[in-house]
Amino acid sequence: MKKYVTTIGVFDGVHIGHQALFKFMKKIGCEKSLPLKVFVVSYPYEYLQGRFDGFIIPLKIRIGEILKYVDEVEILDLSRIKDLDPDEFFYKYISDQTAVLVVGKDFRFGKNAAGTVETLKNLSSEAGIEFFSFDLVMNGSFQKVSSSEIRQFIKSGQIDKVTQLLGRPLILELLVIGTTTQENVFLVKQKDELVKLGNGVYNVEEYYTGKKGLLKVKDMVELVFNEKLLPSSLLTFKVTSKVDQN
């Protein structure tokens, strides 16, 4: 069976900490002439505990961003793996495909997130797999960059901090739900699975064409965009900055 440098995680946002881990994997892969593979868990464990605010970016964007750094991605459905004991999970998904395993130092896995980095290190040793735990990148306050922190910045509308920690603009999917009495102003809805952007006015760019618009988030969400948009259209935008309304 083909062997890889592998890692496992949700990787929501694919933030600068995740990017550093993927670059570390690439360095190992180049040294050992091995391809890179990422097992992406569909949801974080917080989802099972009712403490999940939503994803930072849509799944298709998440996968696309990860594939900028690695050769292959395999999605693991949380509902299918949540009841597996750590040993069972390791031998079912990891051991046969992996020559080198890299995970973040706070990685947890298996039923009730019972498996720790130390568990994984011991299992890897038994299976003859080289193992590395990786310190994720620190932010300007010397705190570990986390997807949870980024979600809070999105909710409070601190888009500059979001951009800094993602290393690129935030990406939103917006569903057109209607029009307004104003020309080129549309009622839109942020997709339910994504964490909701805090109140404010934001400069946005259409993801594929770069066409610019304004997103006004309050009780209703309005998109000012110089295009004809049909109800039920699903649009993808980069949030480039927040408009200073002082």
TrEMBL record:
UniProt keyword annotation of Phosphoprotein present: no
Domain of life: Bacteria
Keywords: ATP-binding, FAD, Flavoprotein, FMN, Nucleotide-binding, Nucleotidyltransferase, Transferase
Domain FAD synthetase: 3-148
Top class in the EC scheme: transferase
Reactions catalysed, as given in the entry: FMN + ATP + H(+) = FAD + diphosphate
EC number: 2.7.7.2
Single GO biological process annotation from the record: FAD biosynthetic process
Protein name (record): FAD synthase
UniProt organism field: Pseudothermotoga thermarum DSM 5069
GO MF annotations, alphabetized: ATP binding; FMN adenylyltransferase activity
Pathway annotation from the record: Cofactor biosynthesis; FAD biosynthesis; FAD from FMN: step 1/1
